[in-house]
Amino acid sequence: MTKALIAPSILAADFANLQRDVEMVNNSDADWFHLDVMDGVFVPNISFGMPVIEAISRHAKKPLDVHLMIVQPERYIREFALLGTDTLTVHFEASTHLHCSLQAIKTEGMKAGVALNPHTNVAVLKDTIMDIDLVCLMSVNPGFGGQSFIENTYEKVRELKKIISEKGASTKIEIDGGVTDKNAKELVLAGADVLVAGSYVFGADNPTQTVKHLKQLV
Ligand code: DX5
Ligand code: ZN
């Protein structure tokens, strides 16, 4: 089985020791940095924006996976490209012209991601799947770290995997929210390629070891 990728979510890092936590990810078995941008409108929380990502990007030695939980994400595509974003993910629910946003993300040289809230059926992506590099399935309601994993996600992963195979697409499936050593393996068996983990990693006594443990499981 190919190894799944692990993307620690910086939302759960210690913002007063951000460089230390970025170095932890650099020196761990983690694959990507997951960066959650929240605007207080699309989700009921405000996290961090461009200046913080710019600071992280100066120290990060692994790809930046930016998850925009903001309304009208198409307004900021170029800014995130200039910050060194590798994959830019917009929410399906926040995008009136999703296909257009996907093209714009690629034009700026980034990989294009689409996130789905827990209530959104994966079938809505049938017509755009060939243009999507990453689907981020939210396994909690977006807005906060530390929530419990929604069990229906396994079924969504299987359904999405089927759509991807039927269309012959090479889209990766990412799971975001409530990921721990209790569900990691089953998610990967269902078809997940990337696991985001925030509080499970940064809340651990030994985050480096915890990343290693997750990586060994998947
Ligand atoms: C939630 C964010 C997640 C969050 C995951 O809105 O999109 O990326 O950081 O945190 P945990 O792993 O603690 O559920
Ligand atoms: Zn996220």
Annotation field: number of helices? 8
Bound compounds, each kind once, are: D-xylitol-5-phosphate, zinc ion
SSE succession = EHEHEHEHEEHEHEHH
Strand order of the largest sheet: 1-8-7-6-5-4-3-2
Shape, per Cα inertia axes: globular
Overall tally of domains:
1
Round the Cα radius of gyration to an integer and report it.
16 Å
Portion in helices? 25-40%
Mean pLDDT: 98
CATH class call = Alpha Beta
Low-confidence stretches: none
Distance between the termini: 8 Å
Strand content: 15-25%
Can you walk me through this structure?
This protein is α/β, with parallel strands linked by helices. The protein has one domain (5-217): Aldolase class I (TIM Barrel). Helix content is 33%, strand content 19%. It has 8 helices and 8 strands, in the order βαβαβαβαββαβαβαα. The protein has helices at residues 18-26, 50-59, 77-82, 98-107, 153-167, 184-190, 199-202, 207-217, and strands spanning 5-8, 33-38, 64-69, 87-91, 111-116, 134-138, 172-176, 194-197. An 8-stranded parallel beta sheet has the order 1-8-7-6-5-4-3-2. Helix 3 links the parallel strand 3 (64-69) and strand 4 (87-91). It is globular, with a radius of gyration of 16 Å. The chain starts with a strand and ends with a helix. D-xylitol-5-phosphate binds at residues 9, 11-12, 34, 36, 67, 140, 142-147, 176-179, 196-200.
